[in-house]
Structures are given as structure tokens and as C-alpha cells.
Amino acid sequence: MKVIILGACGGMGRYVAKSISSFKEIDNLGIADLNKVDAEILASQLGSHTKGIGVDINDTEKLLSILFDYDVVLNTVGPFFKFGYKILQTSLDANCHYMDICDDWEPTERMLELNSKAKEKNLLAILGLGASPGITNLLGKIAIDNLDKAHTIYTGWNLEEAQPEDISSQKETNAAMIHGIEQISGKVKIFKDNSFKMVSPLKKLKISYPNHGTYNAYIFGHPEAITFPYHHKDISNSVNLAHGNKSTILILRIIRQLINLKVMTKNIAARFLEWLERKESSQNHIQENSLPEIYALAVGLKNGNEETVGVSLDGTITRELTMGEATANPLSLGLKMFLKNEISERGVIAPESKSINHKKLLMEIYESFGMKDAKIKIDKSWSV
Predict the structure, then answer these.
(1) What residue ranges define each of the domains in the chain, with the CATH number in brackets?
(2) Are 351 and 99 in contact (CB under 8 A)?
(3) What is the pTM of this model?
(4) Do 11 and 168 meet the contact criterion of CB atoms below 8 Å apart?
(5) Distance between CA atoms of 89 and 352, rounded to whole angstroms?
(6) What is the pLDDT of residues 166-187, one digit of tens each?
């Protein structure tokens, strides 16, 4: 199989490249990046079956001509609200299967509309196969499956863990920071009362997590709010949440206000946030709550009663885990499942699709993180 990674020298892409370069199912691996020199250097480190390629994804004709030589496209180029839809469309035009780590809700909506095109070409496209989205979707599917009928799904994660990568070919503002600023400014889309609604991000919600308690969490624009209603028609409410210490939430709200008042541009805000993240990454913060670092929470009926189930990871991480690795490993392992013919569905899907073995993929992801005694932790509001 011939696989190409777009954005291969970025903070996420380089982890994907190093991870999948040893897959025996891949006989030709393209390391593609805007910086051709960096792409060739990285390719030279990964084996004779790899090739460094310089490509500007804004040059659609050149990108299309390159993709025609491959079977699968792995897209790690962010921010996805700028590039996601165009790259998926070009990948399908080149008759390539496709997977990405898209973390923006706006392109996710449009990319799902390419489902019929992908099916007609017998191609698979998996969107948002990273940490969040990605792991959160897998956790959410398991939470839903533990209820007889779920009507609400929350996915969430700890803002304090979202640290930018130090190593990247990216010379401009960090794409992850641009994404974050985009999703806390203006309005974001959630699914509420059986319809999509635009709401203000960072709005506080009280959530009750079984065996943990009731805590504050904050609306954050993300694809999970879009994809769960797409795959699960019984869902009436789907919201992505973030949590963290009080000072982090306050800073984000101030930045949001300055952007909305046009006092600060999004680009300047992203650079400031990146500087602040690096400055405070080594400091310990007092957490506002003790929600799991990453989780999903489903509410619905169980044995005729309204119940709640929370699903998170459990185990001890035995080594330092970077944001790049946490995002890249799910994509790499999802690709491995596809290469082994363990995902038979075609069309445009998200990780919570029923065609994916959610528990198996989660356990493989946890093991790749070096987790000791890794397991899926399920907290239920009812007695077993």
C-alpha cells in the first residue's frame, strides 16, 4: 500500500511518520511538507521506502498530481478550518482513502457532505482521528453503548494538558493555537434539543459525573458536537466541553472579549496564547475540579430510569507523553486497522462509527502511550 502524510514535518505529522514507517503493509511512504528540505531529511531517517516531497497544499493541481501516486492520504495540516475540506476533496478526486486529525467543527460539517462522493468511489475517509476528537469519540461510543438509549453526549478534556509542540517545521503561528482561538471566539455550533444551534463558547455548564461529583465545564467548539448526531440519530444533545483551572478560563474569556471587540486580532491572540502556554507549562495549577483529563459522558435510559455513564482512561503513564504523540498515535493505529482490513465501511465517517472496533482501538492507543495496567474506566450512576 502507498501512503502519503501531508504536513509530515509538523508537530503532529512527524510522530505519525515515525510511527507508521515500520508498518509492513506500507511499501511506499510519502513524507510531504511545505518545506521540501525538512521532508527529505525526515524521509532519509525512516528507511529506503520513504520519499521526501515538497508540496504547497494551496496549489491544488500540484497536490492532485502527487496524490494520484498514492492509495491513502493522512492529513495533519492545520488549521483545518482553512485546509481540511479542500484536502479531503482533492484526495477523493485522486481516488485516495483519507484520514485526518481535524479538530474544527466548521469543515467537519462540509466534509461529511462528501459522504456520497466517497461511497460512489468506494473510498473511506475518517475525520478527527486524534486525541480530541478521536479518543473522545471512542470513549463516547462506549458510553452510549452502556445505556439502553442515550439522548445526551458530552465529550471533554483538560485544557492544562493541551501544550504546543516544541519541534515543528512550522515557522508561522502554531496551528493548534490558531485552532484554539478560532473555537473560543465568535459563535460555535452545538446540538441541542434535536437541532444545531450557534452559541457563545466558554459558557459554563454544570455536569454530574458518576463517582466524581458535580463540576464546572465550558463549551468549546469541536467536531464531536457535529459527528455524534450524524452517527447516532437518537441523540438529542451533543456538546464538547473543556475544563481547567480558574485562571486559564479567565484568560481565555478575556482574550475572547478582546477579539470580539476587535481590540486584538486572532493571529496576535494565538501568538500570545502560545507564549503563555510555554511560559506556564512547567507550573503546577490548582484545578477547579477533578474531572478526568479526557472523558465522555452519556445521559439516557437504563432499565427504564434516567442514568448517566462516564468513560475515561485508567492506568499509569510510565513516560512523558507529548501532545503530538497523543494526537498522532490514534491516527497511526487507525490506519493500521484499515490496512489490516479491519474497517470495511466506505464513505465519510467519524471514529464513533459502528464499523470501528472502539474498545480494541482504545486499548491499542493506551498501550502505545506506555500506560501500565491500562484499562477503560466506566463510571455508572446505577448499581450493577
Answers:
(1) 2-131+323-369 (3.40.50.720), 135-317 (3.30.360)
(2) no
(3) 0.93
(4) yes
(5) 22
(6) 555 555 677 788 888 999 999 9
- Give the CA-trace dihedral at 344, 345, 346, 350, to 10 degrees: -130
User: By CB neighbour count within 10 A (0-12 exposed, 13-18 middle, 19+ buried), where does 164 fall?
Assistant: buried
Quick one: cell of 156?
471533554
CB-based contact 168:9 (threshold 8 Å): yes
Chain segment 82-110, per-residue pLDDT in tens: 999 999 999 999 999 999 999 999 999 99
Q: Which amino acid is at 4?
A: I
In the chain, the amino acid numbered 344 is S
Burial class (CB in 10 A: 0-12, 13-18, 19+), 343: buried
Q: Which residues contact 301 (CB under 8 A, 6 or more apart)?
A: 147, 148, 149, 151, 307
User: Alpha-carbon distance 220 to 241, whole Å?
Assistant: 5
